[in-house]
Amino acid sequence: MNLRLLLSLLALAGLSACTPNPGGGGGDTDSDGDGLLDDEDPNPDNPDTDGDGLTDGQEVNELGTDPENPDSDGDGYLDGSEVEAGSDPADEDSVIYQGGWPYNPNSDDIEDPGTDGTVDQDDIIGRVIGVDQFGDEVDLYDFAGQGKPIILDVFAEWCPPCKATAAWLGGGQDQYGLEGEFGAVRAAVNSGDIYWISLMEQDNFGNVADLAAVQRWDQAYPNEHVAVIADPVMSAFMGHLMQNGFPNFHALNENMEIVYMNDRNTQQLDFQALNVALSLVE
């Protein structure tokens, strides 16, 4: 019996010939193109199952991280952020910042006005990158985009009121009686609802602040919730913010906009920025 006759008889009998399965049963298919075959992929329809900025294939094949956990090593930083910043997302001891400060992958999208000119309330504050108490180069704009307000404390190491404020913030002596009015602010800083950044403009001798200076400050007034950063250009922020005394306090929103600027027309300490920042906590 020839082949044509056989096919005709099968058709008459209600049967049809089988065609090969090009997918080989699905085992050789990568539906989302992430570098993992469907039968190995936790979500074959999503190339980045955990939303950490890395494809599932990158995590499994290259990094040894978990494609279903955005922070594989549990160090507080997304796997994708660690790769971008140069730390190891599979090693809990390899972090972006030793202080645990936030990281903003979109920091370059902020329109930096620079610190050569002056700013006023409602302006975006200028970008500064300086060394912190752990020796890391910290970018001020990494604190942006986190959904949290920021208190920027611009100070000098030699300044007595700066020391008194730092002592209170760390839970020590409260020389100015700040706890009664601003205790909720200190609690919000300790809980991570407000970022407090202390930017040192001068060391004990009136010189440019450096690593040694911010480490001395951190040892004298320890607070794990406060980033102490040395301004690499002495008093640049004093001119930028048009301030004439230490300390001066400013409240920023998550877009790096100044929502309250320290009153530069008074010789009295102005703590109003603390309450303004607290009012921005969601």
What's the N-to-C terminus distance? Answer: 82 Å
What would CATH call the class of the largest domain?
A: Alpha Beta
Strand content: 5-15%
**Would you count the extended β strands for me?**
7
| Individual helix count | 8
Widest sheet, order of strands: 5-4-3-6-7
CATH architecture of the largest domain: 3-Layer(aba) Sandwich
Instruction: Give me the Rg, rounded.
Output: 28 Å
Helix content: 25-40%
Q: Order of helices and strands, N to C?
A: HHHEEEHHEHEHEEH
If you average the pLDDT, what whole number results?
91
Give the overall silhouette: elongated
Structural class: alpha/beta
3D structure, described in words:
The protein has 282 residues and is an alpha/beta fold. The chain folds into two domains: 20-96, no CATH class; 107-279, Glutaredoxin. It is built from eight helices and seven strands. It has helices at 3-12, 56-63, 79-85, 160-169, 178-191, 211-220, 236-240, 272-279, and strands at residues 129-131, 137-139, 150-156, 195-202, 226-230, 248-252, 258-260. The strands form two sheets. It has a five-stranded mixed beta sheet with strand order 5-4-3-6-7. The protein is elongated, with a radius of gyration of 28 Å. Residues 5-25 have low confidence and may be disordered.
